[in-house]
Recover the amino acids of this structure.
């Protein structure tokens, strides 16, 4: 999320409602209460709690703050306390000192232990009561404590009297038990420190499942001691050792997060075949795929597009041993078998040996063959007390009911899985790699549309959802900035009440959260600054950042643009660096709508004018810098277009302010020019253009 310039009226009212009491005189350590408490319409946190009631006064944070545990305790809680104070130190700069008599107390009461291996549906509720003298956090299990600590940290505010938290009572629990993030380490390998950074952010917004996609056509990413050629020949040397996997799983458990793997099969499994070609349905030889979408528009080659052979008993013998090894590495109850089999079904149809098997065994069709393959995997997992998950292609009439269906194809597919007696997880609408706006993810609910027509029992089978980051077009350098803070919109959708739908509030709180995530240990904002600076060398980076805040990268998949993407493509262009959503352009568009409707305040009109002048004049400063770098040469027409669009916007704004409408021919000419300036250049779309078009249309 970029540093947004939210409208003064929205931002000021929001922050006033959250911290109004902080501006009163202080009688340390208690902040004097007003005559009547101001109830915030929306706490500055994500996700919003299920229920909150404002109190009177503030709890002031000083160096003497101490935390004590009552009831059940365990080492995980002590480590949570240490993380809490480390984050608080980064937030406030306050160094803890030995507690003094009468110091403010933070008292945590936990009733009982959580499960040794975290389970779906465990109690994550908590009760948080903040008064001027004391903080009480009560939870049935350590999971609730972890969630409540993050809420408190997000409530810390800067006030004229110091750092403080407004008095409030919160009763909170999640709406869905499954709230996940899928990270693809198969296409681009994501080092352990990147996985840990994402786990830190997941804890901050109460996500509780890491779906770890660890095998793809581009690489097999987990060390196998039973089948060592998997990583030796199928990873380019980029894989996680088993010790690293155990460390990450323990790191996640400390944060109340389950971790389960996805080993993709029967399609997207080329990395299996490099070392073990007997698994495949083709003759080989096999190689790791380098180009993303490399078979689109080209004749099929068996050496590129083979899938696992479901007709050989040797395939199942291999997978049984493989699952046996990996199931001991991943203790979670769930295991993702992939099942994205659109390639496999096509390939099996052209394989004479497989078709002979289908005929001899009275298998209805290739979809039924996939169900047979899935059923065999399910039995291997069940004997190890694991539950299989598959993408919604695995849903066939004969698919075992124990298999959980993860849908990427829409709410109709999710509802179908529930009607068919399967539990379901929604990922459609939550794909972060598509670079859709945060509002898009925020407005997708697992129980909307077709799912709303299900019976209560069927709705209960929908466990929740997962936001997803596929990594064709991101690197370890850029991936965290593409996931966060937008993933928090899905976290709120899955945690908060169904009635929590205010998009304006969401964007304001998302901007606040983006700053909090830096205190939680995520360096993505600093990394993006470094990537900007790298593009211009030692020059002043400010003009490049002005351009960057007005453009967005390509949306959808596959990426339609000027470059060919392989695993080796340098992801160092502006389209790789910028956030998925241009916040400044989105805010300008909101202002333009208000101005066109005659509803804007003078301050809002002046803000729009200031932005347009900045964007118009930036080209003259930026152009000399662009010629100095091969990476920035492609931005010269992007910068010129921005200046032209802003000039048209200023002309329209002048006409509206002076009440001197543009003539019909002039207006049509300007609109036609805007249309010619709208196509993406250098894989960048000018996002101030819709707002300017609104102003030009209104200036009539």
């Amino acid at each position: 999320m970029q540093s947004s310039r939210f409208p003064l009226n929205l931002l000021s009212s929001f922050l006033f409602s959250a911290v109004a009491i902080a501006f009163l005189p202080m009688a340390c350590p208690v902040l004097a209460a007003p005559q009547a408490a101001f109830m915030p319409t929306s706490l500055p946190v994500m996700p919003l709690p299920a229920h909150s009631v404002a109190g009177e006064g503030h709890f002031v944070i000083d160096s003497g703050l101490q935390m004590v545990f009552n009831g059940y305790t365990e080492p995980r809680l002590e480590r949570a306390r240490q993380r809490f104070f480390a984050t608080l130190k980064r937030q406030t700069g306050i160094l803890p000192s030995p507690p003094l008599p009468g110091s403010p107390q933070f008292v945590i009461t936990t009733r009982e232990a959580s499960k040794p291996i975290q389970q779906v549906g465990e109690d994550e509720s908590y009760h948080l009561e903040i008064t001027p003298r004391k903080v009480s956090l009560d939870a049935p299990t350590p999971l609730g404590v972890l969630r409540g600590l993050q809420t408190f940290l997000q409530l810390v505010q800067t006030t004229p009297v110091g750092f403080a938290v407004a008095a409030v009572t919160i009763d909170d629990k999640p709406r869905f038990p499954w709230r996940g993030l899928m990270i693809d380490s198969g296409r681009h390998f994501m080092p352990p420190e990147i996985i840990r950074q994402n786990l830190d952010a997941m804890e901050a917004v109460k996500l509780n499942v890491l779906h770890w996609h660890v095998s793809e056509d581009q690489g097999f990413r987990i060390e196998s001691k039973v089948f060592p050629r998997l990583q030796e020949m199928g990873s380019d040397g980029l894989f996680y050792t088993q010790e690293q996997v155990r460390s990450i799983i323990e790191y996640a458990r400390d944060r109340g997060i389950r971790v389960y793997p996805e080993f993709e099969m029967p399609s997207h499994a080329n990395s299996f075949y490099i070392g073990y070609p007997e698994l495949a349905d083709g003759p080989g030889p096999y190689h790791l795929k380098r180009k993303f979408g490399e078979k689109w528009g080209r004749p099929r080659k068996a050496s590129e597009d083979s899938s696992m052979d479901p007709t050989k008993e040797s395939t199942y013998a291999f997978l049984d041993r493989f699952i046996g090894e990996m199931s001991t590495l991943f203790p979670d109850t769930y295991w993702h078998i992939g099942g994205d089999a659109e390639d496999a079904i096509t390939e099996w149809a052209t394989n004479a040996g497989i078709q002979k098997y289908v005929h001899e065994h009275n298998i209805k069709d290739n979809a039924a063959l996939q169900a047979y393959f899935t059923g065999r995997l399910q039995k291997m997992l069940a004997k190890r007390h694991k539950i299989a998950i598959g993408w919604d292609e695995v849903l066939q009439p004969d698919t075992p009911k124990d298999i959980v269906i993860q849908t990427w194809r829409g709410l109709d597919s999710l509802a179908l899985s529930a009607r068919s007696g399967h539990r379901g997880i929604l990922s459609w609408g939550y794909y972060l790699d598509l670079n859709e706006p945060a509002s898009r993810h925020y407005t997708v609910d697992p129980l909307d549309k077709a799912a709303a027509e299900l019976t209560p029992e069927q709705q209960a089978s929908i466990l929740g959802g997962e936001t997803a980051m596929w990594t064709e077009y991101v690197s370890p350098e850029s991936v965290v900035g593409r996931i966060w803070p937008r993933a928090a919109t899905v976290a709120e959708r899955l945690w908060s009440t169904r009635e929590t739908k205010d998009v304006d509030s969401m964007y304001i709180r998302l901007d606040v959260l983006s700053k909090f995530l830096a205190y939680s240990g995520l360096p993505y904002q600093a990394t993006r600054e470094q990537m900007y600076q790298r593009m211009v060398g030692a020059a002043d980076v400010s003009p490049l950042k002005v351009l960057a805040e007005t453009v967005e990268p390509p949306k959808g998949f596959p990426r339609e643009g000027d470059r060919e993407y392989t695993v080796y493509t340098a992801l160092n262009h502006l389209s790789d660096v910028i956030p998925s959503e241009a916040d400044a352009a989105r805010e300008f568009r909101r202002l333009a709508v208000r101005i066109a409707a005659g509803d804007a305040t003078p301050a809002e009109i002046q803000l729009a004018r200031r932005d347009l002048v900045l964007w118009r004049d930036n080209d003259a400063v930026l152009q000399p810098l662009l010629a100095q770098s091969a990476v920035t040469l492609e931005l010269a027409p992007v910068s010129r277009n921005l200046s032209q669009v802003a000039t048209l916007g200023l002309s329209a704004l002048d006409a509206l302010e002076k009440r001197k409408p543009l003539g019909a021919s002039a207006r049509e000419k300007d609109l036609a020019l805007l249309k010619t300036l709208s196509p993406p250049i250098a894989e960048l779309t000018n996002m101030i253009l819709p707002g300017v078009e609104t102003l030009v249309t209104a200036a009539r």
